[in-house]
Amino acid sequence: MPSLDSTEDQCIADFTLRKDTRLEYPGACSLYFDGVMQIVLEVLLGWNLKEQRGTEDGIFGELDAWGMTVEEQARKTLHAHLLLWSKRLAKMRDELFNDDEAKRNKARADFCESVDKVLSSSYTNNEWVVEHKCGARGKVGEVFKECNPQVLRDARHKVLCHDINGNVMECNECHEKVSTQDIINLALNEWHQNALKDENLTFPLSKERHDIAMYRTSYDMMSDCCEDDPFWGNEDVRRILQISGDNEHYALHGPRCFKKGEECTSGSFPQAACTSTCIHEDTRLDGEDIKMLEWYLLDGSVKKTAPWMVLPKRPLGCQYLNTHNKEISTIFNCNSNVIIGDASNTYYLTLYGSKSTQKEDSEKKERILKKLIRRLRRLQMERESNRVVDDEPSDYIQGLSMMLSAITASTSRDVVSSPMAHYLGQHGGSRFSASHKPKHLLISQFEGILDNEDVNFTLRRTNKSKADGTVLQWPDSSSNDYVYRPKRLEKKCAYEFTEMYEKQCYSFKDMDANKQDIIAPGTEESERYRFIEGHPGQEFAYLEKLKLPAVAVVSLPKGKLCLLKDLELDNDLPSDVVEDKRENYAKMALMMFYPFRELNDLKKDNSYWNRFEEERVRHLRGKETTFWKIGFEILQNMDDREMMMQKDHRTRARDPVQIETKLNVDEAKQKKIREIVPDITQFYDDEPSYAESDVEYGEYEDYEEEYGGRDHRWSHNTLIREAGNITTERLISARLTSDESIFNSSDSSRVQEEDIREHNGEDTSDWFRNRSFPTLLKLISGTLVGATDYNDIFEDDVMDETLSDDKDEVVDDDVHIITQEDTPLVQDTSSSCNIPTLVGVARKVAHQGEAR
Length: 852
What we know:
3-stranded antiparallel beta sheet; globular; 40% helix; 23 strands; alpha+beta
């Protein structure tokens, strides 16, 4: 690894080398990621893969289960989303809203203490000493204070954040606004001066040096190789550099922060400082009490709660810091955003982790293919209009375009990057994994078989033949496996049966030798059982207890397991509609959690509800039930999950900043045209790629009619329109030759400014300052394609022939403009203009001036 004392050139070289290595060896990136996630699961989370259970050694305590989804970051690097079920936190959460105030307060105190052990929203555990340029010196909280909440709210806005620019704190002495990054740099500078370092370091550090210091942190801290260095060996210094590089939210946000509106939804940054971890309930809405969320329970009661969230301890200077896990971020030098809260958080994280990424992943490839197809069609039309004779068949381009269209159609739903392709190859083609194996419980199939209806099944062939010589076949279905289960499993319900047992098939060799009873003797020691008489595959398959339990994935007939509130459990005189809902609900619940072999086993007095109500009442009174006890808890979970899907229950809690402030929509509209000219490259990725953008489709729906339904997100006009403040007088016309520069030198600016004032009668000197030469260069490099090497543009043989006196004079409009796909054309200069490039423009200027 490079030294922390490397020169800037060495830092840049290392940064470039690592980047190029990742691109060249994507499989290595996948293997490294896979190894990292294995360490996270087995070591940090303490999950025992062999025994399929959590241990107390995990950083989140003992886990019940986990689920993981692997995604691509802009089709490049891999990252994972994990959903964890913690035994410790789950038990505490149930008491957070206990009616008994003493129990509630104790539960909240214990819960917050546990949260502090796994979550962090601060850089270090120590307070920093800083000195502002006005002379104020002391701890951060003594020198600076947080701006009023409205400033924090404006800093979340898509437009107003540019005015705030991250300056959410101010000095108590001089009242100058400062950003959290300014605080960090002041603290680093203080530590550097105290360390009496001779090296010439300036803060903030360059991106490349910061990157080296960040990924060396875990190695340096564990090996103590920087122990003697008073600056680089300071744990607070290294942690600040590491966490700010991995978990700091960009003050001007990014395009993905505004997918759902004009305000940042990716963590709602900046967050207000918080002196201690607490549970925040959103109980106020415009001065009134917010509508409480109602949760219906199986005992007939209704539990009311307000939307709530966990506000972790957040010191001053950490307003833009993600809530992260210290251990994961420190060991792996990576981002580790951690969220915990009410039921809506679980709902959001589950949907987010299982969302499809194909639309985003395939966009770049589809856009390139579509552009190529349009280009081929345009060339074909040009050849037809010019009647150009070509050796190639006339329908070649059309056929190629059709083939590319077919490729696009057939692969649009299966586009992944190289690292993801390697990862999928290692994991059976799936990016999803979980702590427990899933098994399907098909209640619809159960109902159909018991009602003697036609159902779907798998038809299996055997090596046996009937008397007439036809091959013996049998219908295989999981419903028959349960209905014809062995008598030893008589008291097992379908749900428990699905989790604990699995069907296995005898081998042809064992069937020929009639070893069925030997392989499945039906004893507790063997844990293998034969199906009873009536099972279609009794002679061909047997039951075996799983070594590790699975998780049942339940498939229910739509609408038959209604919400608990629709059952009106406290109503002794229900309507006919409610009685029908009760019957259907009871039938579904009993089929899952009550042992049966036929439907009459689920009825009492010819009613499913009577049987379920009898079991429910016995459970509430603490008596033993035939109904699986855990089944009542699962039914409650199912209802809570369905309630979360109701629109009025998908309300996420607002943080204190949102409650105490308002969204300045009018002010945002007025400041749409800002005084600062933005660099046009802000609308591209950090590493611009051919036809790729983070800008969302929805932001340009208003332009569809104007543009005839075409997508112009990447066009020059759209970028100008999006910038908003680039008016006509600020645009620079593209000219091939000119006697005067489009920019002003320091010597000529005064004369030109005087000429303009005389001409317009007003001072327009700012007009020239708004013309940014670096911005123009970046615009050119981002929009024009072609060779950039000077020798490639001006080859001797090409220039000599182009500027030859024997060649007829060429009119400007006829000069061939070379495109990225073209090769230097000398003789043919009559083709129509395509996309202009630096190559073509340079040649045109060279030809007109007859000089290089």
